[in-house]
Amino acid sequence: MQPNKEQIALVTGSTDGIGRIAAEKLAAMKMTVLIHGRDRVKCEKAVEEIRESTGNAKIDMYTFDLSSLEEVRKLASKIRSEHSAINILINNAGILPGKHTEGKRLLSEDGYELCFAVNYLAPFLLTRLLFPLLERASPARIVNVSSAAQKQLDFDNIMLERDYEPMRAYAQSKLALAMFTFELADRVKEMGITANCLHPGTLLDTKMVRESSMSAQGSAESGAIVEVYAATSAELEDKTGLYLEEQKEVRAHQQAYDQEAREKLWRLSEELTESGGERRI
Question: What is the phi/psi pair of residue 151, to 5°?
Fold first, then answer.
């Protein structure tokens, strides 16, 4: 994929951290970049700074909270009303319950375990709602930001009502995102759309890591480089269904390759997001 002024990229969670840097790098390639965050002031600041640093005025912002499925629908609706196609979708937004939560199990507005809702259900629904725009832009790329922290899904305890631990919730949601990526790649491979996921790096210097009890071990810049590589590299032009780490294909958790489990997760996700009739994918 050769970046040019005609391309449009949406990066969720792009007001700070890895997403913010990735958005700026895409803007420097003269793409139209859609900034997303839940804080309007931070969105406005990111747009202003990116425009100034890149000289690219084609930066739009969308302020919606991905912990609400209704907000996800509003985000998709607004984008569809303003853009006819999207070349790149980077599902970057994510959360890890910080130490301030004291290990309490948090719920989304819809009553779902919060990590599962934000890190997985939101990108599942957003991708489906924006799929017509991606199909129209074909060839297009979907990049899902997973993690090396992956823990097997227990379908009898998917919302972790038993044995809840913040890191378990995070790791489960990130494996779910990888499973979704692989299943999606199979379903859209004949449509000129690739779907890949990645681990941006271990304990990078981001707000999410700083708010946890862990210490940063790498730069946010390094994670952004991996995201931009997955979104634009000519090496990945026809490659799909990959899990990348440091720009190399590696193996995800074994459950991600279990087609029966992936299909079960897909059906459950349709039920939880009430999106069974959205698209044929």
Answer: -130, 140
Rg of the chain (C-alpha set): 17
Number of domains in the chain: 1
In a domain, 181, yes or no: yes
Neighbours of 238 (CB within 10 A): 10
CB contact at 8 A, 9 and 231: yes
Measured between alpha carbons, how far is 277 from 134 in angstroms, rounded to an integer? 18
Helices and strands counted in the chain (H then E): 9, 8
Residues of the chain with pLDDT under 70: 1-5, 98-100, 201-218, 277-280
Report CA-CA distances (Å) from 239 to 22, 139, 194: 21, 12, 7
pLDDT digits (tens, 9 = 90+) for 212-266: 455 445 588 888 999 999 999 999 999 999 999 989 999 999 999 999 999 999 9
On whether residue 2 sits in a domain, the answer given is no
Range of the domain at 38: 8-273
Closest CA to 89 of 125, 142, 126: 142
Active-site hit among 62, 120, 170, 243? 170
What is the model's pLDDT at position 278? 62
Residues in the chain, overall count = 281
Q: Is 170 a catalytic residue?
A: yes
State the CATH number of the domain containing residue 125: 3.40.50.720
Per-residue pLDDT of 176-201, as tens digits, reads 999 999 999 999 989 999 999 999 95
